[in-house]
Write a structure and sequence with these properties.
Layout: H1 5-9, E1 60-62, E2 71-75, H2 77-89, E3 93-97, E4 100-104, E5 107-108, E6 113-117, E7 121-125, E8 134-139, E9 142-147, E10 151-154, E11 157-163, E12 166-168, E13 177-178, H3 184-192, E14 196-197, E15 203-205, H4 208-214, H5 217-221, H6 229-234, E16 244-247, E17 250-255, E18 258-260, E19 267-270, E20 273-278, E21 281-283, E22 294-297, E23 300-305, E24 308-310, E25 316-319, H7 323-329, E26 333-339, E27 342-343, E28 350-352, E29 360-371, E30 377-380, E31 388-410, E32 442-463, E33 470-482, E34 484-489, E35 491-503, E36 507-512, E37 515-520, E38 530-535, E39 540-545, E40 556-559, E41 567-569
Parallel strand pairs: 1-3, 2-4, 3-6, 4-7, 5-10, 6-11, 7-12, 10-16, 11-17, 12-18, 16-19, 17-20, 18-21, 19-22, 20-23, 21-24, 22-25, 23-26, 24-27, 25-28, 26-29, 27-29, 28-30, 29-31, 30-31, 31-32, 32-33, 32-34, 33-35, 34-36, 35-37, 36-38, 37-39, 38-40, 39-41
Antiparallel strand pairs: 8-9, 13-15, 14-15
């Protein structure tokens, strides 16, 4: 297990001027001192929970005893299935895959079975898509037809994948590739390998059938369109599966292996309970479409510990279904601990959403490192999702070289934002504010403490919805050096204490149409263009406490119709 504390003890190497709190507990320590009668709501506290790890009888079933050959040419689908069935029928144990190159079709797990990949065991799933029949499953938060996953299990109790081997999902046989994500030589190599390119010359598909199927995808996603099984079969080469699909399983352990090159998402526990993921390496090419690391969907009691991710989409993601389907399912992802993980490439290091319609609650993220991840801490949703995200506690995260936002809350995911570019500071929206409904997502009671980021496109975006603002978010002991500073829009009950943001341009803090926002002991970088920018007619109750703004060239600027009494300085 990696040791993270020495890194935190030497945060000065990252240029952090803030003194970080030593205590790891919230409660009284998390509530900073108030001034006068100002009381800041405290984020919800997590409820302790235990995650039992499955144990298995001391029985060994070597796949070679059932005819499997690790020669890289024998298709071992039947032999693997026989070994797993024999193990389960005997009352459980360990199915062992020795060193070798094991070509196989889909592996279906059973209860009380530990699929153990010994060191130098390399399991490669056959790229012939005909081995993966069309099944009814869930994809991106909705019921859907997809191809069968390379590894799957449903309604199981006590199941594991362990060892030091490698699992390769042969994703190159499934995934489209966008030209803009490749170098010219890489793109030319794809063209030379065969496949087909769309009429714009911008996206490569592994086959002409996959290209044709992509054109029908809009019909599949139209809820008013009832497609036949024949129509889905015609799109079969485009309906990529997740690599590891575990549905309604209890007592799950994934420990040790490398999972790589998935057709879509890599690891997808869905509606599972008591899940432990530890000492895993999860890899996908950085250009892989939908190449998520792990997506925990409507799961409860989960630990993700000491794992490394280098993927093509979100790395560690919390989900709970999309829109009406997710709300009807009504199963939040809850009671999750994520600790001591490292993320390299990925659209987000730790992510909630956007399919979070069943809710996400009681999640802790501690002692993680994000290196070159597109976004660091990413919260995303949009109107239509509904759902409540609350009781999220994040502590001790180090980031470097983040191309976009180090921390972002985006309630306008997939467009419809009131600002033209997510890197711009919020500007007044002229659109009509809809009434709140069950379709309105709600994010509240979130604590983000002890954060260091050396290099980002933008430090922080706190963007709620005008009908239901982002509520009760704490930023404490934060140092971020970025091109742009912090932008807060449609938020309420925001507490920032001992926050130092060093932007290369623009204001340090921009607040638009937000209320009850406190900056306490903020650090003003010398020579900053503007320390605090206020805009919007709904901006009020902005407090700046124990903060020296004089190092900035301009302390406060007001734009638009912000009320004259919106700001209180050091009351």
């Amino acid at each position: 297990m990696r040791h993270f504390n020495p890194i935190l003890q030497n945060l000065a190497l990252f240029g952090c001027a803030a003194a970080f709190a030593a205590s790891g507990r919230l409660g009284a320590d998390a509530r900073s001192e108030s001034s006068g009668n100002v009381i800041i709501p405290e984020p919800s506290l997590a409820v302790p929970f235990d995650v039992p790890v499955p144990a298995f009888p001391d029985r060994r079933f070597d796949v070679t005893q059932f005819g499997a050959k690790g020669d890289g040419k024998t298709l071992n689908t039947e032999a693997f299935a026989k070994a797993i069935s024999a193990c389960a029928q005997s009352g459980g144990g360990r199915v062992v895959v020795p060193a070798g190159l094991w070509l196989t079709g889909p592996i279906v797990l059973q209860s009380n079975v530990d699929l153990h990949l010994e060191e130098r065991a390399f399991v490669v799933f056959d790229p012939n898509l005909k081995h993966y029949p069309l099944i009814e499953t869930s994809y991106e938060g909705l019921q859907a037809y997809r191809r069968q996953s390379p590894i799957s299990g449903r309604d199981l109790i006590n199941v594991a994948i362990t060892g030091k081997g490698i699992v390769d999902g042969s994703g190159q046989a499934w995934r489209p590739v966008k030209k803009g994500k490749m170098t010219e030589s890489q793109w030319q190599g794809l063209l030379n390998s065969g496949g087909a390119v769309d009429r714009w010359g911008s996206t490569w598909y592994p086959s002409s059938a996959a290209l044709g199927a992509a054109a029908l995808l809009a019909e599949v996603r139209d809820p008013k369109r009832q497609l036949t099984m024949e129509a889905y079969e015609a799109m079969g080469e485009y309906l990529r599966p997740v690599s590891v699909s575990l549905v309604r399983c209890k007592n799950v352990l994934l420990e040790g292996p490398t999972f790589q090159n998935s057709p879509a998402w890599n690891l997808h526990p869905l509606m599972c309970e008591n899940v432990t993921l530890r000492h895993l390496t999860v890899k996908n090419p950085w250009y892989s479409q939908n190449g998520d690391g792990v997506d925990l969907e409507s799961c409860r009691n989960v630990v993700v510990a000491s794992c490394d991710f280098d993927v093509g989409d979100d790395a560690i993601c919390m989900k709970s279904g999309r829109n009406e389907e997710g709300r009807k399912r009504g199963l939040p992802t809850e009671n999750v601990r994520i600790l001591n993980c490292v993320v390299y490439h990925g659209h987000g290091g730790f992510v909630i959403g956007s399919e979070m319609s069943g809710g996400v609650r009681n999640v802790e993220v501690n002692d993680c490192i994000f290196i070159g991840t597109d976004t660091g801490l990413r919260f995303k949703s949009t109107r239509g999702r509904g759902g409540v995200v609350e009781g999220i506690r994040i502590r001790n995260v180090v980031m470097t070289d983040i191309p976009t936002q180090a921390i972002t809350f985006n309630m306008y995911y997939q467009g419809l934002a009131p600002i033209p570019d997510p890197e711009d500071a919020p500007i007044p929206s002229r659109t009509e504010i809809p009434a709140p409904s069950e379709e309105t997502p709600r994010f509240r009671n979130i604590s983000i403490v002890d954060i260091v980021c050396r290099g980002a496109g933008q430090a922080v975006v706190l963007q709620g919805l005008p009908e239901i603002p982002l509520e009760n978010v704490e930023l404490k002991n934060v140092f971020i050096k970025a091109v742009q500073g912090l932008a807060c829009s449609d938020a309420e009950g925001i507490r920032m204490e001992n926050v130092e943001i060093v932007p290369g341009q623009g204001p340090v803090f921009s607040i638009h149409n937000s209320r009850d926002v406190t900056l306490d002991r903020a650090v003003c970088p010398p020579g900053a263009e503007v320390f605090l920018s206020l805009s919007g007619s709904r901006t009020k109750d902005i407090r700046v406490l124990r903060t020296d703004m004089t190092p900035a060239r301009k302390d406060v600027e007001r734009t638009g119709d912000v009320p004259a009494d919106a700001l209180m300085r050091n009351p």
